[in-house]
Amino acid sequence: MQVPRFLRPPLAYFLGSVRAKLLFLVLAPLMLGFPIIMGLTWYWSHTYYNKLLVFKVGSDLVTANEYFDRVVEGVGIRVGGLATSRQLAQALAEGGSEGLLKAAQGELGLDFINVLDVNGRVLHSTGHLPAGAERGEWAIVSRAIREGAGERSVVEVFSADALAAISPELRDRARLALVDTPRAAPDSRTREERGMVIHAAAPVFDARGNLAGVIEGGVLLNGNLGIVDTINAIVYREDSLPLGSKGTATLFLGDARIATNVRLFEGERALGTRASAEVSKHVLTDGKPWLERAFVVNDWYVSGYEPIVDSQGTRVGMLYVGFLEAPFSAAKTVALLVIFCLFLAISIIGAVWSLHWARSIFRPIERMHGAIRSIGRGDNSARVGPVDSRDELGLLAREFDRLLDVLALKRDQLEQLAASLDRKVEARTRDLETANTELRAAQRQLLMSEKLAAIGELTAGVAHEISNPTAVIQGNLDLLREELGPQAAPVMSEIRLIDEQVNRIRLIVTKLLQFARPGEFAGYVETVDPATVIADCLVLTRQHLTSRGVKVVQHLQTTRRVEINTQELQQVLINLIVNAVQAMPDGGTLTLSSTPWDEHDMPCGVCITVSDTGQGIREDDLARIFDPFFTTKKTQGTGLGLSISYSLIERYGGRITVDSIYGKGAAFTLWIRAEPMYRNEHAEAARNSGG
């Protein structure tokens, strides 16, 4: 990176001056440490400040939620107590329960009480519900009738009509004008007419223990300031919030405040204002508690919101507690400013003191630096000279001069030796490179010659030894067919297969020649059904399979055809099947499977897998099993079977892979392309070597 021109003089001075570097080393801890420490202090204070505030509001929300749960449970307990009272049982028996219900409503702090029969219809009501009105559709009532055990209470949302049916007064108490609130989600409504009710029901039993009816009661939370004021008094007791902050508590129906001690201007409660859209989505839509700062009506509060659910598990509202953030933020800012000023003063004092003590170090170092620069310009006689310092720097200067004298003496000797050594190394390097090049060329030529000679000798021997017996077998087979005539019909299929295998033997001889000189041969390609070839191979190897007691399992999962030479594919499969049978001398399971071969959602061909339950292949041998002449059968085989098979499949653009765990069997997979992609690497190697 190129240094800007206006920075070059200061940078050059710094790079060329020991004094500047030493000053930097002295002052760097102070100058760099100050902003780093202040940055870390700000980060830690900001992080832990937020964590502490979130922890505080989280614990406040837990306390508020526990109290609200007790309020909900308390309504159920009071209704349950009324249901089990003797006065109620006596009044119901005498048919004069209206007076008792009115008195109980005031004593228990309920907004309505209904006496229902065992079918959930109204018998008596403190409100305006007529006798026979259906109440069984409410979940809490239905549960009391169905289960008939204990009191239950839940939070439910009543529509304006449901409230008016109980009492017009309840509908009027629930009605609330919605106030346009900053950051709230858009809402076309201007009023909230629904009511959030703590709804409770308890079964009533007669003297025989039979269900005689149900007591239903409830408390309207809309405008119920006593609950939120009590929550606020419990959570935020006097002096529990320092620094002038103040706590608040709120009950929401949806995102609208129906009971709150959050204040608007002139001390008016913020009833009808709405929560911010971000909070509403997080709590009501996503169902997650909110524990962080949030915009509440007209200021920022450290806030905790938790969803309120009804009897169906639907999120119908929120419980909120929080306190003003501004006093805490101001206190944090003041504390950081005090720390900043304190660290700044300490850094300035430390820098002045460090510079005073650094002066005694500058002068000897500058003289040594000057001597080094003079020597660098070619003045080998330059020395530091006498110095007044008697400390380590003075000793260093004297030793430096002595070292320069020794170096001057040795320099001339080294220059002469270096020149002579360079000439010798250059000559030896040229000789070594020439010898290495000739050696590598000779090794490659020797290896290629040995392989070609071995393959050629083996091929000639095999062709000579197999061709004559094959001709005899073919002649006797023709004679057998002529002599038997029509009587050969029952075994005609076997005769045909023998005829094909004799022909296959001739082809194998040809393939051996092809392995040695692949460029002189080309296979006849046809469209082949792998399933048919597998079936033929099983017939041809049936004797091997039955003699070893091998069980054959087939999983043919594709009808896709491939283009390949049939005899070559048959040769490869028979070779793999015979190898698998030989790997299971005491019997086992031979599995033949075929599956489609697709890559990048495009059909490529077919995969044929031959797997056995034999001893498997050692890990050290896996990398060599396709090498020519490599075999683990010390008393039989030439080690060409797998090598030839691999060459045959590879010529059409396919490959053979093997998976094996020693002691648990092996699986060979043929990857055969539907349309061949011809390869002839052996022929190319022969041409490159002059073969």
TrEMBL record:
EC numbers for this chain: 2.7.13.3
Protein's membrane topology: Multi-pass membrane protein
Gene Ontology molecular function terms on file: phosphorelay sensor kinase activity
InterPro entries recorded: HAMP_dom, HATPase_C_sf, HATPase_dom, His_kinase_dom, HisK_dim/P_dom, HisK_dim/P_sf, sCache_3, Sensor-like_sf
Catalytic activity from the UniProt record: ATP + protein L-histidine = ADP + protein N-phospho-L-histidine
Example of a GO cellular component annotation carried by this entry: plasma membrane
Span of domain HAMP: 359-412
Main location: membrane
Coiled coil region boundaries: 404-452
Sorted UniProt keywords: Cell membrane, Coiled coil, Kinase, Membrane, Phosphoprotein, Transferase, Transmembrane, Transmembrane helix
UniProt subcellular location: Cell membrane
Top-level taxon of the source organism: Bacteria
Membrane-traversing stretches: 21-44, 334-358
EC supergroup of this enzyme: transferase
Domain Histidine kinase, first and last residues per copy: 461-676
UniProt protein name: histidine kinase
Organism of provenance: Parazoarcus communis
Organism lineage string: Bacteria, Pseudomonadati, Pseudomonadota, Betaproteobacteria, Rhodocyclales
